[in-house]
Amino acid sequence: MFQNCSANGAVLNVPAVMVQVKAKDTLPMRRFAKSYEMYDYNLLFIRWLADFCGVDMMVEHYRFNYRTALCILVLSSSVILSLYTFNLYYPDIYKISEVLVLTGFILQGSVKFYYGYSHRKFYQVQYGRLRNLHYKYRNHEKINATLLTLMERIHMLSKLIWIVFLLGALGYTIYPLYMHFANGERVLMIALRIPGVDTDLLSGYVATSVMQLAMLIVACTGISAADTVILLFVANLIAYVDVFTNELDELNAMLNAEVRDEAKIRQQVRMICSQHQDIIEYESDLDERYIMICFAHVIGSIAAMSTTLFLVYMIQFVPGYPILLAVFCQLLEFCLLGTVLTVKNEEIIRAIYSAQWYLLREPERRCFALMLHKSQNFIEMTIGGFAPLNLETFVAIMNRIYTYFMMLISFIE
Fold first, then answer.
1. Exposure string (b/e) for 185-216, b if CB count within 10 Å is 16 or more?
2. In this structure, are residues 49 and 225 in contact, taking their beta carbons and an 8 Å threshold?
3. Nearest to 241, CA basis, from 93, 366, 342
4. Which of 24, 179, 266, 389 lies deepest, with the highest CB count within 10 Å?
5. For residues 162 and 330, is the Cβ–Cβ distance under 8 A?
6. Measured CA distances, 5 to 2, 12, 40, 256 (Å)
7. 38: how many CB neighbours lie within 10 A of its CB?
8. What is the tally of helices (H) and strands (E) in the chain?
9. What phi and psi values does residue 361 have, to the nearest 5 degrees?
10. SS3 of 63, please?
11. Of 273, 102, 234, nearest to 172 (Cα)?
């Protein structure tokens, strides 16, 4: 049993066991009748990706292991090799640009690893809170069906994210084969060189390629795990809001009943107020943990996308096409999550306004007035606190990238 503290301080027992996950536990996709089962299954897929890199923070007694050490080694060596390669290839603008593409991924990967590791207890608590929510309404036909549909969509999006990153890694992997058969050239997968290793020699080329392949595998699974965890926790705000609005609908039915049960109405109002406070705390927790992750994510994505566009246009950089797809989807994912957060907060305000609170007694009316007051200043996802993270920002970023890209091309030509 996994113990978790609820918003009112009560200890809840979550009927879940943290076990070592394997690939066979996640594929193929299974059908479930309860949303909490689909939630557990979705988490298994995410934990499989994280466990591959040694960063499965959902283990109750997580311990540093050799895969964690390998992940840290890949991140730290990527930073060092990027600086070395930048200096080695200077002033070759195209090779330097290839390094800058990698730097965008290194930036966001390092920040996500740091905050994931430092907030590992938070992820365990959030797991319990969300599973309690799904488990509580397992026998409520309407809510369970809504939550189950949500979890199925999150699961499909999680696997789509992984596939997109896999395509990006494959783009780098097949690049040497393409150049060998198309142009008869021996090139490396990525523009990172090992100090003292001569890649013109077969042994040096093989050693460097093996190192780069290991980096690509760790990067692909690690960033996929980080992004799918964020998707799972942020998108589950939809579950909180759907449950909240359903409870308001049930309160309206109680208020319009021929024979009103005032005790049940008071209890329903208290539960609604408690759920509203849970939503506020949940959003606050998400903002506190993800504000710097979103900043690094957007900055890294902009750097990678801008530089890749330049390489694709100038030298027909083959890995650039899947990389552009991966970065585009990655940035779109975060902006969509930010928009979902804003839309759901507005839905809460509308639901409270639409409730028949005027049929309540004075003490319960004050509770509704307090909820409405708290809802006026809702939390939204931001890019490091500088700008809101939503679809409008996404469109603005795409326009800026296109504008700067065209200016750069005009200057070069």
1. eebbbbbbbbeeeebeeeeebeebbebbeebb
2. yes
3. 342
4. 389
5. no
6. 10, 6, 19, 35
7. 23
8. 11, 2
9. -80, 165
10. coil
11. 102
- Burial pattern 379-412, b for ≥16 Cβ within 10 A else e, equals bebbbeeeebbbeebbeebeeebeeebeeeeeee
Question: What one-character-per-residue DSSP string does 83-151 give?
Answer: HHHHHHHTT-HHHHHHHHHHHHHHHHHHHHHHHHHHTHHHHHHHHHHHHHHHHHTTT-HHHHHHHHHHH
> How far is 203 from 201, CA to CA, in rounded Å?
6
Helix axes 362-375, 262-315, angle to 10 degrees: 10
CA dist 71 and 82 (Å) reads 16
Place of tokens 């960033």: 223
Question: Model confidence over 118-149: pLDDT tens digits?
Answer: 888 888 888 888 999 999 999 999 899 999 99
380 CB-near residues (< 8 Å, 6+ apart) = 287, 338, 341, 342, 345, 388, 389, 390
In angstroms, the Cα distances linking 243 to 233, 239, 240, 295 are: 16, 6, 5, 31
Q: Enter the pTM of the model.
A: 0.85
Measure the CA–CA gap between 160 and 228, rounded to whole angstroms. Answer: 10
What phi, psi does 382 have (nearest 5°)?
A: -130, 165
Token duo for residue 17? 């066991």
Containing 4, the helix (H) or strand (E) segment is strand 2-5
Amino acid at 229: V
Alpha carbon of 330 to those of 46, 157, 305: distances in Å?
A: 16, 11, 11
Q: Helices 320-354 and 262-315 meet at what angle, rounded to 10?
A: 160
DSSP string, 319-352: THHHHHHHHHHHHHHHHHHHHHHHHHHHHHHHHH
Q: Can the peptide bond before residue 319 be classed as cis, meaning omega within 30 degrees of 0?
A: no
Strands 2-5 and 11-14 turn out to be: antiparallel
Q: Are the C-beta atoms of residues 223 and 216 closer than 8 Å to each other?
A: no
Report pLDDT digits (tens) over 141-185.
Answer: 989 999 999 999 999 999 999 999 999 999 999 999 888 888 888
Stated as kind and residue range, the H or E segment containing 5 is strand 2-5
